[in-house]
């Protein structure tokens, strides 16, 4: 019998989710049956989309249930396998609970290659959902081409830092936007940005002026992760027939009413004949092969850098998640469980 | 020497443009020189995009100048030709001033076919900019396919009534939205809508419920002319991977701040993976041949209906334009000058 601590969602937050919406529970796991594996969870992935799942609203993923563990991408080690595809000691990428141990369906787990120089948690970031998201937005949504100018918001974030580097590899001019001087310096030094603008404490008008100086020929592609001031600032700088790859809008997740009037974004889309396309990485799973073909060699060759912000222990997850929503992380936000 | 009355813009309006922003002037026209034609203007086209030109803001067309005549599409009769391509009595489609007479460059005028059963002002509506706009939005932007469900706003308007009929001809299920019971009845009886919903006096939630009933399989394409309540109402009913052909947002032209928070439209675009594309008909001029090939035979065969709301005399243009912005017209708003 395996005893496991689990982090439950016990209330639906308004605004920023505080510690009061979580409860640390403990229980004995059921024994795994045929087709299942018992795993010890090593790493949790924290991602902005999880904020939407805390609301009781239907979206592209089901809301988290109350009084049950939250869940998401995990890296785990197989302790006990009841499936021919896995053996004890295998590391897997899976969808699992915020817990120390779990019994998972083997069919949903993906075995990581043994002996790779890439650390296992990279399969939650550069080689996982954020990497695939960056690649998809850039290639399949925005149809980026060498010589174009791209503006990437959250340029030091998990997705943005990879979108910026992949864009640079493709031969685009890359302008980052990030919150704070440190993140901006990092976006330029490590994450492929030609330059990076700090949005902190700025009105849209001021940031827009800086974008105009940074992009004298205008912006062809906006890789949108944030909404908020950055969106307002970039719209007047978009070139006619520009594209917006609409990946997220983290600035509005906690407080949708803080957004400017919709007309402020709708009118420029007409006037500049922009193409705006929302996308969810899971729709593009059929193209994971093309993603790996392009990105895995770059990672193994050390041509793509990624950062991790690591919180230690299951009990650290709530604060780390609130920090992620406030932009306190650099790169991928992870929780190391064991 | 030809003396002509002209309607000048003398102030930039806030909100709905009233009579105080216009001034009726009168002057002697210069004599036409080589390459020019002197015309008597018969019909003015009034179009919603002209409201944007009244503001002093750069957009895809230049703002109207102050203390100069407004301008737009006109049908005119050639009085005197100094160009081998035209002779007195020719009817032309051109860009001209809100005036009784004008001297125009011959190169910018298009001679209308003589002896056609189609009345000349139809070249300002079904065979002109509104018709080409409807065709472009449907075919080149939304890529409409038989069997899909389209929602057309302003379904009794100049563009909407043609988009609805062309969609029906293509085999789509067509749901109209219009303001008032009369327009809705007309949209169904004459303009190709399977049914039409009245948005007047309704909250977005109520209209959204009616759309859900009208489109039990969801909405694949939204032909967006209005913004406002209709946009808010249709977004929750859009199918995953739906398309929005973004042609205009008349509800917000006079009062952009009346729009809901931008997050209310940005988030569903992500969640439903919508493709939103703004378009301006003039970008698609190269496809006018394809438009005529498809639409002229339908018009000549009486398969496409269009309505006109006609104001009489240059002095009637200001009130007619305000009425257009308030949705008082049915179909194309014209001013008959002579």
From TrEMBL, chains A, B:
Molecular function via GO: oxidoreductase activity, acting on the CH-CH group of donors, NAD or NADP as acceptor
Name recorded for this polypeptide: NADP-dependent oxidoreductase
PANTHER family named in the record: PROSTAGLANDIN REDUCTASE, PROSTAGLANDIN REDUCTASE 1
UniProt KW keywords: Oxidoreductase
InterPro entries according to UniProt: ADH-like_C (IPR013149), ADH_N_2 (IPR041694), ER (IPR020843), GroES-like_sf (IPR011032), MDR_fam (IPR045010), NAD(P)-bd_dom_sf (IPR036291)
Boundaries of every Enoyl reductase (ER) domain copy: 18-335
Domain of life: Bacteria
Species of provenance: Falsigemmobacter intermedius
